[in-house]
Design brief:
Two copies of one chain form a homodimer. By secondary structure, chain A is an alpha/beta fold. Chain A has two domains: 16-252, Aspartate Aminotransferase, domain 2 (3-Layer(aba) Sandwich); 253-347, Aspartate Aminotransferase, domain 1 (Alpha-Beta Complex). Chain A is 34% helix and 17% strand. In chain A, helix 4 links the parallel strand 3 and strand 4. Chains A and B meet through helix 1, helix 3, helix 4 and helix 6 of A and helix 1, helix 3, helix 4 and helix 6 of B.
């Protein structure tokens, strides 16, 4: 099979061993002689999968028993609604750094006062706002750690005295962080930790005591934490495959993951800065390691370059329609070798 | 690999060709040289999958352009909340025939007046109530076509003059029905049409005009119909695998499916009625073709019989804890041969 260099923004590249293990489980799940997707989620085999899939994220992030970990459905988009439904009692603060952050704000408005402490919408989200204060009288402060569409990323965890919530969909497990600073973290799996169809939610258990609204069962975090993420049938395949990715992340270690991701971003951004035909689209200090956005100085060359990429078996490099140009998504599983192939195409570009 | 006779109540047995096709797509999706779960859902290949997966249910059920079909996440349990959130403006009527129907009632109460027109809770849901009237002044009438836990099933579609809503999670596509009588049908995929992680929703387009409440985006059906079920990243694997099952259902045809399911239920219920060691747990006229619940007349034999089933490679036969005894779930993909194996074990039973 031809090796494809997969820069897709999500669903994106996954470690081959996770795909292979998932295929094996579809053929014969843990010696049951049944497919993974044909067994009851109440069978002891799947219960062990769910237990491991809930334990590993906490272990990898160095979090203890004061945190819970569950798998939900509906992607980060449903979390945009569930977070304020559960925790916005009076007022919440949001940092607006892209489309997903803006969507989170939009849904929060259904549930209470929503304060945007800062926004980079004025420059099409090409930078991360820095001069802002998080008020002390809000229920929580919410931000997006990495902006998949625009290619910006938070380089440090904001300081604040209120509960800190973060949508880490596109850079979770990509580097070492002090996860204990967060009260709630969520991530759609389909970028750095698994296939589409599962959403990871990690939250401080004491946060659940702050829920005061009456909430429909499926939208209440307590429903899921109290049933160990098995209130109703979980997305079995997506959880199983995510567990295989988590095992690979744990084996690799976050320090190695970070070093690999650093090498990839250095290689690509260096070429963007060196090459007269290209330029980056974001503020240099806010450049994302996960999603590298760039354009051609002469836009009329764009299609030519896309063709050359296709010839080199590069997939998913076309930029989001709201930014144009190119976006190279370099999730954990993307090898440095694929970035080198892209850089070589850039180096050899002649109009 | 040892052939297992899979009577699991859900996730349950799926046609082997659907599993095989899903494995192939995980290895190489439509000639992309990438795995199904690594490509963007916006790529033309997956867009064609979603288009087919939305078209086939309508074709199979004989529904026209006045209906829409979408795939959501969160199972039937999230529909228990979304249905009244969107459509319960004043008052809604529910038929309470089991745990899932009761859960649907519970969630509806968050949104308005909920009228239970009849309930079989008085006899642990062992029958379907028949003498009831659906009021004419309600927003809709909701019922559950098949009660997975208790083993009862509606044998006809209730008559009513208000919009008719149905949770068909455990018997959708198991027989020919007049689907045009319904305004909204939903089904968690993991019983008769796919793996866990996708929920099919079919609704009459004109129903959407009745939404008057302000609803968070992800919980508003219009969000998903207007974006052709791609508002956010869909559960790619679950949709793909469901499409493979739908193709098999279409090839087989609902008449053949119904004849096969009829043969299976006749074989098993005949043995239950004939065999002095067993008895059914539900009213004879309400017996489910999908989930056959039965117990031993002498309960002390239960464990012995379970052991014999295990020796015969029968899986998932243990009854739900609220009913006890045994439950043989005989979804579309279960072959008659597996039912024969179970019946043989029953015939040969000696205490």
């Amino acid at each position: 099979m031809t090796k494809v260099h997969n820069f897709s923004a999500g669903p994106g590249i996954l470690p081959q061993q996770a795909i292979d293990n998932s295929i094996s489980a579809l053929q014969n799940f843990m010696g049951t002689n049944l497919s993974l997707i044909e067994v009851s989620h109440r069978d002891k085999e799947f219960e062990s999968v769910m237990a491991d899939a809930r334990r590993l994220p906490l272990e990898i992030l160095g979090l203890g028993d004061d945190y819970d970990c569950i798998y939900l459905q509906g992607g980060a988009s449903l979390q945009f609604c569930m977070v304020p439904y559960n925790f916005l009692n009076t007022k919440a603060a949001y940092l607006k750094t892209g489309v997903w952050a803006a969507n989170a704000v939009k849904e929060a408005k259904f549930f209470g006062e929503t304060l945007v402490v800062a926004s980079s919408e004025d420059k099409n989200y090409t930078y991360i706002p820095k001069d802002y204060q998080v008020p002390t009288d809000v229920d929580y402060f919410h931000y997006t750690s990495n902006n998949t569409i625009y290619g910006t990323q938070m380089k440090s965890i904001p300081e604040c005295s209120v509960p800190l919530f973060c949508d880490m969909s596109s850079d979770i497990f990509s580097k070492r962080i002090d996860a204990s600073k967060f009260d709630l973290i969520y991530a759609g799996a389909q970028k750095n930790m698994g296939p589409a169809g599962a959403t990871l939610v990690i939250l401080k258990k004491e946060l659940l005591d702050k829920i005061s609204r009456k909430i429909p069962s499926m939208l209440d975090y307590r429903t899921h934490t109290s049933k160990e993420s098995m209130y109703n049938t979980p997305p079995v395949f997506a959880v199983y495959c995510s567990l295989q990715v988590l095992k690979w992340i744990q084996e690799t270690g976050l320090d190695t993951m970070e070093a690999n991701n650093n090498a990839k971003q250095q290689l690509l951004y260096s070429e963007i800065d060196r090459n007269e035909f290209f330029r980056g689209t974001t503020a240099v200090e806010d450049r994302s390691w996960m999603n590298v956005t760039f354009v051609m100085n002469d836009e009329s060359h764009t299609d030519t370059f896309l063709k050359l990429c296709k010839q080199a078996n590069i997939n998913g490099i076309k930029g989001h329609r709201s930014v144009g140009g190119f976006r190279a998504s370099m999730y954990n599983a993307l090898p440095l070798e694929s970035v080198q192939v892209l850089v070589d195409v850039m180096k050899n570009f002649k109009p």
